[in-house]
């Protein structure tokens, strides 16, 4: 986000998702406007124009998705933005003993607590990988072995790609368990509302990257009143 630390913008705490997401978009608009005005690279300026177009669409949608006037501050919950497996310690029985990396923990709107934690994000893989269909390490060339396997890890003699696909498969199945648990804990209409919030947050987070055109098309459909989830190509 460039020089956003020096921007004269509200820093919170915010009373509502509306106020918070407006600021997030303001940061993007300021940064991309500066790129457009100052960059000498034509491709960079064109990218900035694309991002600005989508960010403005999202800004116009904020009041349609999130109410601006609330009698009470919106309910929040602690949110760990980087809850991947390396930050979760377990004992020999598989019981969680500690969660690390709390320095950037935030109080986020309650709907953010339904977002998949980092260790459940990733590609969708419904079919379980079959170990025998992957190459053994001794079948790989030296160059491939460096890419596919870490010599410091015990890969069981198999190409590391097998274990990557296995993790993708297991995460896909665990996401189903996670979703089922959410349905037990949340009313359907609240869960649907939280999905809308998460999609919008993902759109803001990704609109200055590779997904800008896809997000722009999604925003156009939301503007037309369609109820459609944002597909970023991964869970």
Automatic annotation (TrEMBL):
PANTHER family: AMINOGLYCOSIDE PHOSPHOTRANSFERASE DOMAIN-CONTAINING PROTEIN, AMINOGLYCOSIDE PHOSPHOTRANSFERASE-RELATED-RELATED. SUPFAM superfamilies: Protein kinase-like (PK-like) (SSF56112). InterPro entries: AGP_Transferase, Aminoglycoside_PTrfase, Kinase-like_dom_sf. Signal peptide: none annotated. The lineage of its organism: Eukaryota, Fungi, Dikarya, Ascomycota, Pezizomycotina. Residues 28-111 form the Aminoglycoside phosphotransferase domain. This is Aminoglycoside phosphotransferase domain-containing protein. It comes from the Eukaryota. It comes from Lasiosphaeria hispida.
């Amino acid at each position: 986000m460039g020089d956003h630390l020096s921007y004269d913008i509200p820093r919170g705490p915010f009373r509502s998702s509306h106020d918070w997401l407006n600021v997030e978009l303001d940061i993007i608009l300021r940064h991309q406007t500066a790129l457009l005005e100052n960059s000498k690279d034509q491709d960079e300026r064109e990218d900035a124009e694309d991002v600005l177009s989508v960010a403005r669409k999202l800004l116009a949608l904020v009041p349609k998705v999130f109410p601006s006037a609330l009698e009470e501050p919106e309910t929040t919950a602690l949110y760990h933005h980087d809850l991947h497996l390396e930050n979760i310690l377990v004992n020999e029985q598989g019981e969680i003993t500690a969660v690390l990396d709390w320095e950037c923990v935030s109080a986020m709107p309650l709907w953010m607590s339904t977002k998949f934690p980092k260790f459940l994000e990733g590609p969708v893989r419904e079919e379980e990988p079959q170990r025998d269909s992957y190459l053994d390490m001794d079948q790989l060339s030296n160059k491939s072995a460096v890419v596919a396997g870490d010599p410091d890890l015990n890969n069981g003699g198999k190409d590391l790609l097998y274990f990557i696909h296995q993790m993708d498969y297991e995460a896909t199945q665990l996401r189903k368990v996670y979703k089922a648990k959410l349905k037990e804990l949340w009313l359907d209409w609240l869960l649907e509302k939280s999905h809308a919030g998460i999609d919008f947050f993902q759109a803001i987070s990704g609109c200055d990257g590779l997904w800008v055109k896809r997000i722009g098309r999604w925003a156009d459909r939301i503007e037309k009143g369609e109820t459609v989830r944002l597909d970023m190509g991964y869970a």
